[in-house]
Amino acid sequence: MNKIIKKCKVCPIGCELIIFENKSTPSGYTVEGNSCGKGIEFGIKEITEPSRILTGRVLLRNGTIKHLPVKTTGVIPKDKVDEVMKIFNTVEVTGPIKRGDIVIKNILGLGVDVIAARKA
Ligand code: SF4
């Protein structure tokens, strides 16, 4: 039986997921190593529909640094990653910024926000 090991990126705990092919389940896969149910969904999606939590930087005016590190609050489908990164490159925010402030709400209508990864 094939097994694939992936790190769950849904939360900072970062469980090591072991994903097995299993034709007798509806998804065709079984996930082990997850500490919660979100890991199962993430693990199966990584195999069937790869996606990523994205990190990047946007231009910051009037802040303590020139570029503000940002990250998405959820996974971005792989086919949308380039589009999201292009948006990061065009966005400017004005400080002061608190960690967790929303920088882009509902990016590309994906139901995922882009937030500040640090104070600046
Ligand atoms: S499986 Fe659950 S607890 Fe583990 S990293 Fe994923 S979301 Fe976090």
UniProtKB/TrEMBL annotation:
Q: What is this protein called?
A: Molybdopterin oxidoreductase, 4Fe-4S cluster-binding subunit
Q: PANTHER family, alphabetically? A: DUF1667 DOMAIN-CONTAINING PROTEIN, MOLYBDOPTERIN OXIDOREDUCTASE, 4FE-4S CLUSTER-BINDING SUBUNIT
Signal peptide start-end? none
Q: What Pfam family is a match, any one?
A: DUF1667
Annotated source species: [Clostridium] ultunense Esp
Which taxonomic lineage does the organism of this UniProt entry have?
Bacteria, Bacillati, Bacillota, Tissierellia, Tissierellales
